[in-house]
Amino acid sequence: MPSLLTTKLRIAARFLDVLMIVVSFAAVLAARWIIITWWHFDLFPGPERILQPTSPVGALRMLAIVLPAWIFGLHVSRSYDTTARLRGYLLLRRIGWGILIGAGTSLLALFLFKQTALVSRATLTAFTLFSPFAVFAGRVRLLRWYGRRPGERVHNYNVLVVALNGTSVSLVQTLEQHAGQGFRLLGVLGDEAAPAVGSSPRHLGTVHDLPRILEELPVDAVYTTGRVWNVDAMRWIADSCEEVGVDFSIDANFLGLQTAKADLQELGDTAILSFSTTPRNNEALVVKRALDVVFSAIALLALSPLFGLIALAIKLQDRTGSVFFGQERSGLNGRTFTMWKFRSMVTNAENIQQFLVDRNEVDGPVFKISEDPRITRVGRVMRKLSLDELPQFWNVLAGDMSLVGPRPPIPAEVKKYERWQMRRLSMKPGLTCLWQIGGRNDIDFKKWMELDLEYIDNWSLSLDLKVLARTPRAVITGTGK
What we know:
By secondary structure, the protein is α/β, with parallel strands linked by helices. It has helices at residues 4-38, 56-76, 88-112, 121-148, 169-177, 210-216, 231-244, 282-302, 304-317, 349-352, 377-384, 392-398, 411-414, 434-437, 445-457, 461-477, and strands spanning 157-163, 183-190, 203-206, 221-225, 247-250, 261-267, 270-276, 324-330, 336-342, 402-404, 430-432. A hairpin with a 5-residue loop joins strand 8 (324-330) and strand 9.
């Protein structure tokens, strides 16, 4: 449960961000008015002025669009997470990404609703560049003000740790590290099997002393930890807290999981504690899907003339074969789908593969050879420029794939995976990934799997944007295939 201080900071940060965004927007408009009014030097002769006056109504309409988009972007970029600890470069970086997401969201909404005339490009650009620093300055002042408040100590969130089986060290260290967020550790209760918990924090007794401690000390919450879940003990502790109205929390890592993160959900009247190794930031995942739909749709429309030229080249090479090649691949959690490519091999390529197994250049269950005799002349050019992958934008639009994600494997390859490698299927496959921008064929199969898991464990919208930004260079330089 977040402390009262953390909750107040998050609320205050959102209100302050709204204020700073409005102030920075007004400052940009004021600067624009000064330039129009006082700048008399004609750098670009012509009948029209570079900056046209903006009406108050137009400015208010523009602010009504960008303000919610900016706040949405700041939320998606996780700039409000652990507000009291986000300082310096990390805070500025998250705010910067949030503003960029907000700007993109604004432009996307204006484009879809055909209202681009409402926005001045010069004003939006200046506002996008200036507002991150204004929001950052406001956050810094907010944190300093909260840190200097003389009465803030009375709002500390007093926590009592009940350590079953003597496992309190990790939770105690976590609470001490987050003391700046308002947590105050009162002490630790142990059980008879392991009553000693060290000199810091102070040992207050055993689990059976809990009712007395709850009456004597100003306890706001009881945190229980223990790798072995003793249901009877947990029930007794929960009942003791419920009787006096004290919050009761359980260390969700009682199973000792290394990667999975806990998430409490409600299904009707039933509370369900879920553990997941995949990203749980639902807002960011919605943005990821929206970007997939928009960019894949634009790509399919913009590349349609190129599609026609590629189809013509394939037909001139082999008039009897098909233009597209569909292959069954494994997607999210093993769901199968047909992945589409421009045909770059001879029509019976899959039947010929059994005669080329001894020439495989990649370890593991994957089959790849650099000088594959099955590839046609047109196909070799397409593969060098990754043009054969372009039809996969349709898979992205249909929802089977994403722009960024682990490459979709063949089901026969998945059957040969080790158990730890199966986790790469826990996220939707993509057109490009860390493996592709990091050398592709230049890395072994194990490293390839590790890069995919690294992507899943560290996923964020900013990581997707970095991968997309580095993909064109990997394609142009041809670092493997």
